[in-house]
Design brief:
The chain is an alpha/beta fold and 289 residues long. The protein is built from eleven helices and nine strands.
C-alpha cells in the first residue's frame, strides 16, 4: 500500500478490496492508526504515517496467511471489556459471554462479601468481567491458570477493569490446586471454561488447531477429563448453597449432568446458547436444612 499523503479513508478502501471484508478492514485500520470508533472516523481524511502503513501491511499479511483476526489485532471485545489476546490464550467467544453472565448473576444473589474463582482463566475474560460488574466493596475474584503465560495475559488485562483490579487475585496451578487452603468451603461461585473438546474431534476447525493453545482445548477421549476433576473437587471448595458454573460442549449436557450429580451437586441445570445448543452447566452445593 502506498505511503505519503494517503489517507485512512483510502487505506480502509484499499484494505477492504484486498480482503473482501469491509468491517475487518476497518478494525485493522483502527488498530494500525490507534484510533477507534468515532475517533477513527475523525481521522479518515488525515494522512497515515509510514510506520502506521507498515503496521497495517504486516497485519493484513498475517490475516491473509490464516492467522485469526483476534490475534492479528492483539485485542478483542468481551462484554464490557477490551481484552489483550494472543496465542497464549483462547480467543474469547460469544458463548463464553453467556457463561460470564450466569456467573455474575449467581454472585450478585449471594449475601454479604462475595468470593468467586475463575478457574483456568486464560485471558481473564470471565473473572475480570465479574470483577468489573460486581460491586467494588466486599468482592474478591480469584483468577487461576496452570499456564504462567496465560496468567501474564490475565494480569495485563486486569488493568482494564480500573478500580476493581484491587479485588483481583491471581494464582498459578491446576484448577482448585491453585487456591490457598483457607478458601476451602468458602467460595460463593466457581466458574470455569475448561478444555472440553474430545481428542481427535473432526468438528474442530484447522484455524483453531493451528493457532489456539491445545492445552486449553482438549480433555481426553470424551472431552470430559477436566470437567470430571472440577466436579469432584467442587463440594470441598464451594460453600453450602454456593454455585458452580461451567462452559461445556454442545453435545455434553447429559454426560455433564451425570458427572455433577454423581459428585453430589444439586439443582443441576443445562443451559443453552443463542444457537439453542447445550453450553452452560450450573449446579449448587447442597445446603443442609
Amino acid at each position: 500500500m502506498g505511503v505519503g499523503t494517503i489517507t485512512w479513508r483510502e487505506l480502509w478502501h484499499e484494505t477492504a478490496q484486498v480482503l473482501g471484508e469491509r468491517p475487518q478492514a476497518r478494525w485493522l485500520c483502527e488498530t494500525a492508526s490507534g484510533a477507534f470508533g468515532e475517533d477513527f472516523t475523525e481521522e479518515l481524511d488525515r494522512p497515515a504515517t509510514e510506520r502506521m502503513v507498515a503496521h497495517l501491511d504486516a497485519m493484513v499479511a498475517r490475516y491473509r496467511a490464516g492467522e485469526p483476526l483476534q490475534y492479528v489485532l492483539g485485542h478483542w471485545a468481551f462484554r464490557h471489556l477490551d481484552l489483550l489476546v494472543d496465542r497464549r490464550v483462547l480467543i474469547p467467544r460469544p458463548e463464553t459471554e453467556l457463561v460470564a453472565a450466569v456467573a455474575i448473576e449467581r454472585a450478585r444473589a449471594a449475601s454479604g462479601p462475595v468470593v468467586v474463582a475463575d478457574l483456568g482463566t486464560g485471558s481473564g475474560a470471565i473473572g475480570l468481567s465479574m470483577a468489573a460488574e460486581l460491586r467494588i466493596t466486599g468482592t474478591t475474584v480469584w483468577l487461576t491458570d496452570a499456564s504462567a503465560d496465560a496468567l501474564a495475559v490475565a494480569r495485563a488485562n486486569a488493568a482494564g477493569v480500573g478500580r476493581a483490579a484491587a479485588n483481583v487475585r491471581l494464582a498459578q496451578g491446576s484448577w482448585f490446586d491453585a487456591l490457598p487452603d483457607d478458601l476451602r468451603g468458602c467460595l460463593d461461585v466457581v466458574v470455569a471454561n475448561p478444555p472440553y473438546i474430545a481428542e481427535g474431534d473432526p468438528e474442530v476447525g484447522s484455524e483453531v488447531l493451528e493457532w489456539e493453545p491445545a492445552a486449553a482445548l482438549f480433555a481426553g477421549a470424551e472431552g470430559l477429563d477436566d470437567i470430571r476433576t472440577i466436579a469432584a473437587e467442587a463440594p470441598t471448595w464451594i460453600r453450602p448453597g454456593g454455585s458452580l458454573v461451567l462452559e461445556i460442549g454442545h453435545r455434553q449436557g447429559a454426560a455433564v449432568r451425570r458427572l455433577l450429580e454423581s459428585a453430589g451437586l444439586v439443582d443441576v441445570e443445562i443451559g443453552r446458547d443463542l444457537a439453542g445448543k447445550d453450553r452452560i452447566a450450573t449446579a449448587r452445593i447442597h445446603a443442609p436444612g
